[in-house]
Amino acid sequence: MKGEALAELKPLCRKAAADSAVLLRNYNDFLPLKEGEKTAIFGRAGYEYTKCGTGSGGNVNVRKSASVAEGFKENGVNTVDAELEKLYLDWIKEHPYDNGKEGQFASEPRIQEELRLSEEDITKAAKRNDKALIFIARRAGEEKEVLDAPGSFRLTSEEKRLIGLVTKDFMHVGIVFNTSHIMDMSWTDDAWCHGRIDALLCGWTGGTEGGLGLADVILGKVTPSGHLADTVSMRLSDNPADRNFGDAKENFYEEDIYVGYRYFETFNPKAVLYPFGFGLSYTDFALDGLKVEDKNGIRVSGTVKNTGNYPGAQVVQVYFSAPKGKLGRPDRELIGFKKTAVLAPGEEEKVCICFSENDMAAYDDSGATGNKSCYVLESGEYRFFAGFDVRSARVVPLSGRKKKYELTETKVVKTCEEAMAPTERFIRLKATENGPVYENVPLSATDLGKRIEERLPKPLKKGKKCTFRDVVEGNAKVEDLVSNLADHELMSLVRGEGTDTPYVTPGTASAFGGLTPELREAGIPIACCADGPSGIHMKKGLYATQIPSAVSLACTWDTDLVCELYKGIAKEMEEDDIDVLLGPGMNIHRHPLCGRNFEYFSEDPFLTGKMAAATVKTLYECKKEGVIKHFCVNSQETGRFNENNVVSERALREIYLKGFEIAVKEGGASAVMTSYNMVNGHHTSAYYDLTETILRKEWGFKGMVMTDWWARLNDVVKGGFEHNLKDVRSMVRAHNDIYMVVDPGTAGTNERGDNLETSLEEGTLTRAELEQCAIHILGFMLKLPVANR
Ligand code: BGC
What residue spans of 242-318 are helical by DSSP H? Predict the structure, then answer.
């Protein structure tokens, strides 16, 4: 129904939330709670679930989101301590959830006010109950970085007091994190916790059904099968990006490709509290019969057997290690994974993970191997590892006569051209056979201005007069239509309007296409874009489903589940006349303090790419489109509109662009949103090498690119810190097709005063470039439901 959440999505969301929960510790078989075990729930989040992070990635109007305490009841379990529950619920009535200031974006606090229980209340509760669960909730998000401070990344003194008192009185205590991000976990064995923290469960922010899903796990209706999509380090400062993160102006990516586990497993394994890919289950699994076969690509296979007493699913992860060679490589890189079905005790499943040798290539941005700007496989031994997390994955032997998977010569896999290389001097970390070293980062040798001039598109020849409908019906080509549009019509077309325009579903993020009477006369319809990555955002009073946020989905490691969820989202889009979903978000978790990490999947580009590809592919199959964002390197919210990220071309290609490449090549993504930030001195909204040289020319992308909302722009050739909202000419020249957004009703009147018209007059922009953008926009629109609406 229009403006209502789809009922059939509920059970799937509940399953996804349950499957995303990561059990990090479970001493004394604390979880699942056994039948009849009386449980005291502490912390308001146990009675009032935090469903999402902050900003556009969490902004979904929902009628209700259920709590974990309600989840107990839904499961017919009445073991929640009623006295404590009443205390909390009465207090919550007096202290309602703080959603921030009405109309003020991202004003929700990172932490909600907590009830201060007396020591006596806690002691009494300990007498009445067998176990205690303490819930800790946090939010961060867009325009709201996680802070290295109490109430955000760290516990508050009130939370410490509560945990201290509860662990003093209760023998067995579990901590449940209902947080949009990873929090500090270094305290769980401190003396003030009395050695009584038996369980740690990451419940993330799992959308409207998140509380129910979490209750299912706690009660053992679902066996946890979530695995971390990020490394949890002992200390924040252990993080490789830590000393180059958070500057509002400029950050140098000295850690280079050594992000997350690539760093920790290679250089600093001791600093890890919980490794990447880690997650406990209630049951046990064996992984046997592992072998690597080298035929028609590389196949790693084995059998997973449930050897324990609960039904459960497991995630098999395959990593490889390449020779350090001249380029330097991490000790482990994820190259495949497979989640099994839920296996009954004693049941087994064969898994087979296939990939190509070429998938293991590294990018030579310096020419160290003699192959500058190429993807190469350096000579030496390649080893494969399989297991249930990066740390415990063990070597898989090669089947057949060959003892080793070895390349005798360096092999060039793909020749590219230098693109997006930095211009500022800095150093980067490199792994060698003899340990870590730092080297100078290779700088750009490209004359970007010359490249753009030499590759300017050719103007279209005037085609036959036609309408958009003629093109839809196959009686004319997009080029025919575009060639007949006047210059000012082309300019109107590259401006999207928003937010909340009268033409499309109320409260959505933008409208684009036939926004002026002339364009409508040519039959061009108006398409609707809505946020976003965890469900549709519309006007107040119009409801939608909030699915678990991206980091939760990544922790399921289940791309089939992601497909099922997005089939449901596509149905809601259909009901609400929404053509384009502004998601998935897929930036890399470079540092745990990035506020938007919850909207993004992982620190690993392969897992990120697979999750995003599943999303966009499903939407496309349902005749909708997703927009992969934020292209690229949106690693922090601090200084988010203008901050410059200085990154090597290699790290860009292997880490920050890799996921997008998978989403484009495997997922068939047809729409991209560039980011707010700068990369190597260029705003991504006007970065020719990003949106043309790499995205279209190298990856073969055929769709439409849009800017982020009210994105800053800088000169397409010079880049630099000077920026504005008006240099739309630079955007067009970079083949970024559409500026999001101008005020409703102004796409044709150019009230904002962008420089398109003057640039065309002066000859610093050609009509052919505007035509290119129009072809991309209209070509994309042909695939949208609106083409036939
Ligand atoms: C966000 C985007 C979002 C857009 C439209 C921007 O502030 O960065 O992710 O899609 O707003 O709401």
Answer: 261-267
Q: Is 509 in the pocket of ligand 1 (CB under 6 A)?
A: yes
**Could you tell me the two tokens for 6?**
């789809």
Active-site residue among 708, 715, 727, 737? 708
pLDDT above 80 (res 789): no
Provide the pairing of β-strand 197-202 with 644-646.
unpaired
Kindly provide the residue ranges of all beta strands, DSSP E only, lying in 147-297, ordered along the sequence: 173-179, 197-202, 232-233, 250-252, 272-274, 285-294
CB 596 within 8 A of CB 585: yes
DSSP label of 715: -
Q: Is the minimum distance from the CB of 531 to ligand 1 under 6 angstroms? A: yes
- Which atom, in ligand 1's list, is nearest to the CA of 537? 12
Q: Is 628 in the pocket of ligand 1 (CB under 6 A)?
A: no
The per-residue pLDDT for 527 is 98
Report which of 581, 576, 621, 569 is spatially closest to residue 789, judged by C-alpha positions: 576
Query: Per-residue pLDDT averaged across 252-263, rounded?
Result: 98
pLDDT in tens, 484-493: 999 999 999 9
- Indicate which residue's Cα is closest to atom 6 of ligand 1: 709
End-to-end CA distance of the chain: 18
Centre of ligand 1 to C-alpha 169, Å, is 47
Q: What is the pLDDT of residues 369-427, one digit of tens each?
A: 999 999 999 999 999 999 999 999 999 999 988 889 999 999 999 999 999 999 999 99
Task: Give the separation between CA 187 and CA 213, rounded to whole angstroms.
Answer: 27
66-82: average pLDDT: 96
What average pLDDT is seen over the chain? 97
169 is catalytic: no
Interval 17-32: pLDDT, tens: 999 999 999 999 999 9
CA of 708 to the centre of ligand 1 (A): 6
Residue 585 CA: nearest ligand 1 atom is 9
Residue whose CA lies nearest to ligand 1 atom number 7: 709
Which residues are CB-contacts of 434 (< 8 A; sequence separation ≥ 6)? none
106 touches ligand 1 (CB under 6 Å): no
Residue 523 preceded by cis peptide, ω within 30: no
